[in-house]
């Protein structure tokens, strides 16, 4: 099946909501995209219409997104486009959703510091005959500089080398911190 994938550049319009589901965690938020055009007559940039999208991110992407993104931050969202129609209050409405495949901060508009999600130890599944690896969500085992609620799964205080797997690049003196 052919699916339409899109890449959008815009701003987070609502707080990220994270929920655990039977098929894995999901994060959802509204995303605002405003076209900007150069007005030759005035010699300035002007805003065009704003389009709003509901973005959903599943499993580890959703957990990492919930721990990393706040309202107003500029993002790039790449994902599958879903258009649906629904009837509400006797009127037919069209909704545009994005099932995110990748999300990142827009580095043309600011800086960010990437921290790799902590990798949980391999575990051997009984009777499976092979080992599987599981991944902890962003912040699990790694300190965080974000304010607000903790990352899904919790996060220890900064500089906790034991929780960070004794990785010297994740200890306090070596972590990259950006100025506000």
User: What about the largest sheet?
Assistant: 5 strands, mixed, barrel
The Cα radius of gyration reads: 20 Å
- Structural class call reads mainly beta
Count of DSSP strands: 8
Order of helices and strands: EEEEHEEEE
> Strands of the biggest beta sheet: in what spatial order?
1-3-4-6-5
- Report, as a whole number of angstroms, the end-to-end distance: 45 Å
Number of helices: 1
Helix content: under 10%
Beta-strand proportion: 35-45%
Give start-end ranges of low-pLDDT stretches.
122-164, 173-180
Provide a descriptive summary of the structure in words.
This protein has 180 residues and is mainly beta. The protein has one helix and eight strands. The strands form two sheets. It has a five-stranded mixed barrel with strand order 1-3-4-6-5. The longest helix is centred in the middle third of the chain and has 10 residues.
Question: Can you summarize this structure?
Answer:
The chain is mainly beta and 180 residues long.
Please supply descriptive tags for the structure shown above.
mainly beta, disordered C terminus, about 180 residues, globular
Lay out the secondary structure.
Layout: E1 5-12, E2 17-19, E3 26-39, E4 44-58, H1 59-68, E5 74-88, E6 91-105, E7 123-124, E8 131-132
Parallel strand pairs: 4-6
Antiparallel strand pairs: 1-3, 1-5, 2-3, 3-4, 5-6, 7-8
């Amino acid at each position: 099946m052919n699916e339409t994938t899109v890449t959008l550049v815009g701003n987070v319009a609502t707080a990220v909501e994270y929920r655990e589901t039977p098929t894995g965690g999901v994060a959802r938020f509204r995303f605002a995209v405003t076209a900007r055009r150069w007005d030759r007559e005035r010699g300035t940039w002007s805003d065009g219409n704003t389009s709003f999208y509901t973005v959903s991110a599943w499993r580890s992407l959703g957990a990492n997104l919930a721990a990393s993104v706040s309202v107003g931050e500029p993002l790039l969202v790449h994902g599958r486009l879903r258009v649906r129609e629904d009837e509400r209050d006797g009127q037919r409405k069209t909704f545009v959703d994005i099932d995110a495949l990748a999300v990142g901060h827009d580095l043309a508009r600011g800086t960010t510091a990437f921290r790799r999600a902590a990798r949980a130890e391999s575990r051997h599944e009984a009777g499976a005959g092979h080992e599987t690896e599981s991944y902890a969500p962003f912040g699990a085992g790694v300190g965080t500089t974000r304010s607000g609620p903790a990352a899904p799964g919790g996060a220890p205080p900064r500089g906790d080398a034991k929780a960070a797997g004794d990785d010297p690049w994740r200890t306090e003196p070596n972590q990259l911190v950006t100025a506000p």
